[in-house]
Amino acid sequence: MANERLQTEFCGISMASPIVLLSGCVGFGEEYTRVVGYSNADVGAVVLKGTTGDARLGNEPHRIYETPDGMLNAIGLQNPGVDAVVDDTLPGLDFSETRFFANVSGSTIEEYERVTKRFDDSDIDAIEINISCPNVKEGGVQFGNDPEMSARVVAACRAQTSKPIIAKLSPNQTDIQENARLCIEAGTDGFAVINTLMGMAIDSQTRKPIIGNIRGGLSGPAIKPIALLKVHQVYEVSKQHNVPIIGQGGITTASDAIEFIVAGAAAVGIGTALFYDPLVCAKINKGIADYLQQHNFASVGELVGTLQL
């Protein structure tokens, strides 16, 4: 039976848990269902893999490299294109288990509009706008690091859908608070904070980059302190407008998740941790529920933004 303390709401969407599985880490919602003991019912929402207008092959290998307390990835948004996702993938998902969010990516504003409009006419519960992908050479990262351009993308997508929009913000920018403010004005309903940090790895023997794309997105526990700060900074802006945050970046334990909620996150994203413990979500749920009970919080919502300064 679901724990009532874990039940929460994000952008008007009821979720059984504050846990959101992050885009790029769980395919199109079906990959981990093959693991014995795993269930999508343990999470509040699943964000599907980044989707573009047309099919995309992604970057040359190597695409993934383990780093100290983290991982570099440069998949390059490989996906079958939005029509295939809507027509072939979504009908196979079990929407009775959890909520499903699309992740919209593009190289131009027009592509963002096209993909968003296609998802608007589907069963998807919300649309995450990926304006901050660091491992493609065009589009996302440039949009995400320019607050005015970020807002333009959000506004363009807002005009194409009535579904909740979640702007995924980049940590690789000068002023994340200004970006958040402009995205709120442009019509975002929520934020995902943060995307991966830009990084690289070098083979000292060959003196060549290990990642085929040269650069990639760094995730995992190594980026947690940065992610916590960015969530706190965005919360200072978003709380004035009741715009909720999915806090993400290095969460591997219930304690990590609680720290993000205290900093201002209404939900927490799990990604890299799944690669070495596919059953981690049930453990994090239990830890959050135990904490709420021990500290006399009736719900996750009561804990959000309770940082003592």
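[next item in queue]
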Amino acid sequence: METVLYVSHGSRVEKARKEAVSFIQSVQYRVDIPLQEICFLELAKPDMGQGIENLIERGATKIAVIPVLLLSAGHYYKDIPKEISHAQLRYPHVDFVYGQTIGVQDRVVDVLVQRTRETKVVPHVDANILLVGRGSRHQETKESIEQIAWKLQRKMNAAKISVSYLAACSPSFEEGLQASLREGWSQTFVVPYLWFTGVLIRSMQEKINEIEQTDRQVVLCQYLGSHRAMVDALTDRVYETLHNESSLSK
């Protein structure tokens, strides 16, 4: 039996977990597979091992593993494959196929553009857009964020796009924010390249609240969330994986 396992990151924040589950359920409704399961990499249950076990107990003979991740980094290249390898040893009769992350897509960049417009703040000619990525030690992650920044600048016809990161890469978000203020931009639109709410969104808001610049406007935009384009993007990844005949078990 063909089945689907969605692997989300997980969060200490209950609202973030609920957002992730609700989002994935909206994808499940569009995928014509009767047996689908949601699991988490960390900080929430069920974990990936339990998710696989749940599917196999219900008759799975093929599992399409779908990473609910924006970009390819440590979780994609190391953590999820490690769990798949463990499962292959435990369940040698089951075929596993592994999907792609969302990656760099124009329709996702369009969501970022919409998130800035939803603030109802009209950008000045000298506005700076500060794109904020999660960050990773993988060079590919940084290259992807820079590609997204380039696409965002073209779509918004922005005077300046800066990039910063919340972990593992430089400049840090705090450094990027302070640099934008020092450079004298009248506005800084902080655009998080994050899927759901959580600790990182809260920390960004706290840092913005600490700023005492009365003549510099800092606007925090909404994260990507459950925008229809995001639902479409993950749904496409599911079907691409299901149609992939190259099993990891062979």
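[queue empty]
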